[in-house]
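Page 37, continued from 36.
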């Protein structure tokens, strides 16, 4: 990639969203021109506050934050604060940013930006309510986007909030369905099939703390709660960090591989609510509207994350990572 691309990040920070924002902010390939928040892991206003905290940490409070939808399109809102903490950052209760404030109307910001610069890349890391509202008002705004990539859904992996559904799709299934039905460009779907392979282990966290105590301390504060949750409910030592993988896929697409298929989402508020329906056998003979990611280069991801977010400069980082990932396995 020769030039920096303009990026909008729509998210619900959230522990892993915050790590994804850090990766984007510290990667010269991406020029983050705005962050929009949606109700998901936490209510919209808390997500906006957390986005500002991350921007302050990265010394990038010049980037505007906009609050968006505070409820799903149809179903009642259910947060994931049991997973992310009441403050969304693992009950770390980091000091609020008081000198800069979030602005309103994320949907209007997205519409205005796409009208002025139609080749923007849009990365969606939370429930798709804001994106669906833009599409329902004027789907043609997305005709020329450079890329639309989302973290959400699952193909063959089990769900994380029901047997069949990933949280972002489950939280607002009507919005997820609308996005897959209305998006005029192919959707790159970074779902649980690949994100479950990206586990921040205690060994990796200790390495980050050793090479960058300040960043390591921040990551430890926000992920301690997440570690405990993963052990209690999934018997995982460490925590799955879903969202940074979607950002990494924009920076270095070779990290992920998958296949093209027609995909839709179950919107019914029943046992299959939010389930990703990936037509991998072309039963419906409909145009392929998505690229479903199924393979990930785990070492390559962590190399990118550690060099960018933690500032790792180890000359043989791949060997170090291989050892750390083996220890954490």
């Amino acid at each position: 990639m020769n030039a920096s691309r303009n990026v909008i990040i729509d998210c619900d920070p959230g522990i892993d969203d915050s790590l994804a924002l850090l990766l984007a902010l510290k990667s010269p390939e991406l020029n983050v021109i705005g962050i929009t928040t949606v109700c998901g892991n936490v209510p919209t206003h808390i997500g906006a506050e957390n986005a500002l905290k991350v921007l302050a940490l990265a010394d990038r409070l010049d980037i505007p934050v906009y609050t968006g939808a505070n409820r799903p399109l149809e179903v009642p809102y259910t947060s994931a604060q049991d997973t992310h903490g009441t403050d969304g950052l693992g009950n770390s209760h980091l000091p609020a940013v008081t000198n800069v404030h979030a602005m309103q109307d994320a949907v209007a910001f997205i519409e205005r930006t796409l009208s002025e610069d139609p080749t923007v890349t849009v990365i969606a890391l939370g429930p798709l309510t804001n994106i669906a509202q833009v599409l329902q008002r004027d789907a043609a705004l997305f005709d020329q986007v450079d890329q639309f990539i989302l973290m959400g859904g699952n193909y063959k992996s089990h769900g994380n909030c029901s047997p069949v559904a990933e949280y972002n799709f489950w939280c607002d299934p009507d919005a997820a369905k609308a996005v897959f039905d209305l998006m005029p460009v192919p959707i790159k779907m970074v779902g649980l099939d690949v994100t479950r392979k990206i586990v921040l282990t205690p060994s990796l966290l200790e390495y980050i703390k050793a090479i960058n105590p300040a960043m390591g301390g921040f990551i430890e504060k926000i992920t301690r709660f997440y570690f405990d949750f993963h052990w209690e409910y999934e018997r995982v030592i460490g925590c799955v960090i879903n969202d940074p993988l979607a950002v990494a896929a924009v920076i270095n697409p070779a990290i992920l591989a998958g296949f093209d298929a027609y995909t839709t989402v179950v919107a019914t508020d029943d046992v299959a609510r939010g389930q990703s329906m990936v037509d991998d056998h072309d039963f419906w003979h409909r145009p392929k509207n998505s690229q479903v990611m199924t393979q990930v280069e785990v070492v390559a991801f962590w190399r990118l994350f550690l060099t960018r977010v933690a500032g790792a400069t180890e000359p043989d980082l791949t060997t170090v990572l291989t050892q750390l990932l083996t220890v954490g396995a």
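Residues 213-234 form the longest helix (22 residues). Flag for discussion at group meeting. The CA atoms of residues 6 and 193 lie 28 Å apart.
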